[in-house]
Design a protein that fits this description.
Blueprint (H helix, E strand, L loop, with lengths): L1 E2 L21 H7 L7 E6 L3 H11 L4 E6 L7 H7 L3 H8 L3 H4 L2
Parallel strand pairs: 1-2, 2-3
């Protein structure tokens, strides 16, 4: 599960990752096609930056996009916890795959 994670496109933009390289990331994904686990990419539906990053990563690897309704926060898990919804959210995310799409 990635919640607002850094994408290869964002490496140069972030102070914390300046000087790092994601060169080879896309090649590694292609080399391992068919053997990669599905990633859950979580973002608040009103957080444009995190939604953009999730879409970028979904275009690179097997992924399910999870948009949290009524959430603009970067820290989606804290927002869910504050609303009393974190437990049910995590139960749904870690349930068998069929439950995710219902």
């Amino acid at each position: 599960m990635s919640v607002g994670g850094v994408t290869p496109d964002d490496i140069d933009e972030r102070v914390q990752t300046q000087g790092m390289s994601a060169k080879g990331f896309d090649d590694a994904i292609r080399r391992n096609a068919g053997r990669l686990p599905e990633v859950l990419l979580v973002s608040g539906e009103q957080n444009e930056r995190d939604t953009r990053k999730a879409l970028s990563m979904a275009g690179r690897m097997p992924a399910t996009l999870v948009s949290v309704p009524d959430c603009a926060n970067h820290n989606v898990l804290h927002a869910l916890w504050s609303r009393g919804e974190l437990g049910p959210f995590l139960e749904r995310m870690f349930a068998p795959a069929a439950a995710l799409h219902s």
